[in-house]
Design goal:
By secondary structure, this protein is an all-alpha fold. It has nine helices and no strands. It folds into two domains: 82 residues, RNA polymerase sigma factor, region 2, helix turn helix motif (Rna Polymerase Sigma Factor, Chain: A, Orthogonal Bundle), CATH 1.10.1740.10; 95 residues, Arc Repressor Mutant, subunit A, CATH 1.10.10. Helix 2 runs antiparallel to helix 3, helix 5 crosses helix 8 and helix 7 crosses helix 8. The protein starts with 6 loop residues before the first helix and ends with a helix.
Length: 196
């Protein structure tokens, strides 16, 4: 343990809302958590973002810190959960982008598959058309123009976190819309839901 870092004292003070103690916690654990996440993602930006989210979550739930037995395993568990959430969102985004991108070709295995794909594409376009104007714009910039979150943020003069929230909300809406309006085969819907 680093000199001057009393874990029990830090937990107690943080749980009481002491920002100085929180800053000490952040300083002490940011780099090890960052290195841990970076091993999986190999992305400086994504790793920093996840670790920042970890500390936001810790602060939001600081009241429970006083009940945490061992701080280090607790922080790594929170980090693991947010890393898994990030990977699931990434998988969802990539799956939807792949399915609604203009160059997607219909499946040629059978007439039934081809019809299912056409139904799916029509329903996905309908879902996208029901997005709010801003969400639709962000969604299409990502899916059709293949712009990164940073590029979208620059073009729209908004923060990357706003772009990310709007994009994830769009993806969630499209998924829910397609689930509710089920104009596609059960098999394809189940495959989509499993992938998301």
């Amino acid at each position: 343990m680093q000199e001057g870092f009393d874990e029990d004292d830090i937990k107690l003070r943080c749980s009481g809302g002491d920002r100085k103690a929180y800053a000490q916690l952040y300083t002490f654990y940011f780099k090890p958590l960052y290195r841990h996440v970076f091993l999986f993602l190999k992305s400086k930006e994504a790793s920093e973002e996840i670790v920042q989210d970890v500390f936001v979550k810790i602060w939001e739930n600081r009241i429970i810190l006083s009940t945490v037995q061992n701080l280090k395993p607790y922080l790594y568990r929170v980090t693991k959960n947010l890393l898994l959430d990030y990977l699931r969102r990434l998988q969802t985004e990539n799956r939807i982008i792949k399915m609604v991108s203009p160059e997607t070709e219909p499946i040629e295995d059978s007439t039934s598959d081809s019809i299912d794909h056409k139904d799916y594409m029509a329903l996905s376009k309908e879902a996208i058309s029901n997005l709010t104007e801003k969400r639709r714009e962000i969604f299409l910039m990502r899916t059709e123009q293949d712009l990164s979150l940073d590029e979208i943020a620059d073009k729209l003069s908004i923060s990357k976190s706003v772009v990310k929230k709007q994009l994830y909300a769009s993806i969630a809406f499209v998924r829910e819309y397609m689930h509710k309006h089920g104009g596609i085969s059960t098999g394809l819907l189940l495959a989509l839901l499993k992938a998301l």
